[in-house]
């Protein structure tokens, strides 16, 4: 199908600009959420690590169970309609929680429902937005991808900045901001071109979608797990989701609150430092043209991140803690970039999209378990010592992969 199918002339003036504006209206609220949600749980409600971990798990569950289905939906429906629909729905969680908080009804249960609803909307927004990029950009796609990734990281930092003011202004204005930005995102989505899939009966469409989803999962898994290059990467991504992602979303806000007596601005600053490190290494990788020894670079990046997390356990001054988070973010930027690059280069052409979706799901799938695990360990060992468990877990998997697979010898296929 032509990428121009269904496009309205009035939308063609600057579709990429509208695309980026809509993306900003998704990722600024996402950045606000990361800080505000942790602040409401840890500072306002004073929840412990286990309950914080369970709440973070609720935000991640929709992506775990619905990510592949949302991708199939984006191939079957008008992507612009999906964006409009889920941006409008995405306004409801923030507006509803703002009403509850303003009336004094903030509770742990309300935050769990909020997390599930927020995660659900983002699960359906992202595949539709990603798959629209080819329709709004017709030349230099790699530049457009880089700009989109830069916007994603930058907008999250902007969201962190807004959420850092929670102690001064409270949660209600920030929740209203989240909802308002999603409504603006729906308006920007209306400026985008249509994606008009072929017409077919409802029964045939449902059967095809179900069959495609199941076969995509099965075939993609077979390709990845049968590859001596891609299977070790998937194992490392699972370790990242289980140990490092759980530490990022659960241990970090607990350390800021319990060890350093921090508030919303300090939690936001910790996330900003991590993200700045990630952005810095992403820029460097683009500037130098990547890393040739991808497999070894991926594993060394994970080891480097773990080394700085180990330093955190010595209860550094807060500025030292923030520096360590920045270096951890640098390692994360390298590892995620190289991991995706290995999958991109080694997956067969007709399996590449499925392999990349399962690559993303591999990391996401372990995150809910990791959030609960890190929350439990923070209660048993303290959040600083729980960081050491996260490092030990990743180091063990890296050692297994280094010694038992050929990943250390995987080089970039195209210079």
- Principal-axis shape equals globular
Rg from Cα: 21 Å
Structural class by sheet pairing and helices: mainly alpha
N-end to C-end Cα span: 32 Å
Q: What is the fold named in CATH at topology level of the largest domain?
A: Growth Hormone, Chain: A
* The first-level CATH class name of the largest domain: Mainly Alpha
Please mark out the parts with pLDDT under 50 across 5 or more consecutive residues, or reply none.
1-12
Instruction: Count the DSSP helices.
Output: 14
Biggest beta-sheet profile: none
How many individual β-strands?
0
Tell me the name of the CATH homologous superfamily of the largest domain: MFS general substrate transporter like domains
Mean pLDDT across all amino acids: 83
Q: Which second-level CATH architecture of the largest domain applies?
A: Up-down Bundle
Count of the separate structural domains: 2
Element order, helices and strands?
Answer: HHHHHHHHHHHHHH
Strand-residue proportion:
under 5%
> Which range best describes the helical content: under 10%, 10-25%, 25-40%, 40-55%, 55-70% or over 70%?
over 70%
List the helices and strands and how they pair.
Blueprint: H1 15-44, H2 49-76, H3 79-102, H4 108-136, H5 141-163, H6 166-169, H7 171-189, H8 202-225, H9 230-258, H10 264-288, H11 294-312, H12 318-346, H13 352-381, H14 383-404
Helix pairs in contact: 1-4, 1-5, 1-7, 1-9, 1-10, 2-4, 2-8, 2-9, 2-13, 3-4, 3-7, 5-10, 8-13, 9-12, 9-13, 9-14, 10-12, 11-12, 11-14, 12-13, 13-14
């Amino acid at each position: 199908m032509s990428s121009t199918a269904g496009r309205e002339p009035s939308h063609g003036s600057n579709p990429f600009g509208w695309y980026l504006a809509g993306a900003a209206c998704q990722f600024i609220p996402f950045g606000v959420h990361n800080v505000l949600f942790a602040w409401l749980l840890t500072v306002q409600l004073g929840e412990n690590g286990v309950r914080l971990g369970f709440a973070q798990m609720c935000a991640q569950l929709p992506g775990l169970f619905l990510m592949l289905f949302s991708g199939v939906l984006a191939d079957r429906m008008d992507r612009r309609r999906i964006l409009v629909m889920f941006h409008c729905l995405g306004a409801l969680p923030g507006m509803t929680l703002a009403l509850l908080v303003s009336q004094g009804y903030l509770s742990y249960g309300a935050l769990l429902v909020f997390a599930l609803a927020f995660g659900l909307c983002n699960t359906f927004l992202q595949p539709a937005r990603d798959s629209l990029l080819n329709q709004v950009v017709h030349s230099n796609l790699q530049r457009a991808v880089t700009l989109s990734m830069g916007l994603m990281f930058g907008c999250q930092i902007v969201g962190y900045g807004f959420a850092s003011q929670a102690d001064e202004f409270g949660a209600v204005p920030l929740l209203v901001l989240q909802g308002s930005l999603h409504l603006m995102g729906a308006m920007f989505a209306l400026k985008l071109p249509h994606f008009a899939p072929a017409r077919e009966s409802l029964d045939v469409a449902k059967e095809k979608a179900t069959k495609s989803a199941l076969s995509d999962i099965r075939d993609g898994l077979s390709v990845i797990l049968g590859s001596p290059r891609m299977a070790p990467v998937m194992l490392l991504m699972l370790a990242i989701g289980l140990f490092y992602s759980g530490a990022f979303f659960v241990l970090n806000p607990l350390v800021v609150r319990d060890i350093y007596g921090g508030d919303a601005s300090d939690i936001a600053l910790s996330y900003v430092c991590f993200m700045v490190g990630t952005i810095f290494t992403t820029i460097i990788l683009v500037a130098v043209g990547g890393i040739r020894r991808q497999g070894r670079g991926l594993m060394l990046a994970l080891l480097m991140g773990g080394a700085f997390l180990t330093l955190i356990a010595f209860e550094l001054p807060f500025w030292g803690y923030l520096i360590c988070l920045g270096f951890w973010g640098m390692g994360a930027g390298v590892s995620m970039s190289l991991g995706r690059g290995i999958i991109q280069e080694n997956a067969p052409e007709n399996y590449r999209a499925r392999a990349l979706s399962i690559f993303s799901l591999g990391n996401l799938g372990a995150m809910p378990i990791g959030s609960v695990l890190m929350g439990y360990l923070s209660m048993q060992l303290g959040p600083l010592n729980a960081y050491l468990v996260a490092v030990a877990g990743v180091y063990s998997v890296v050692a297994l992969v280094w010694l038992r697979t050929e990943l250390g010898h995987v080089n970039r296929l195209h210079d």
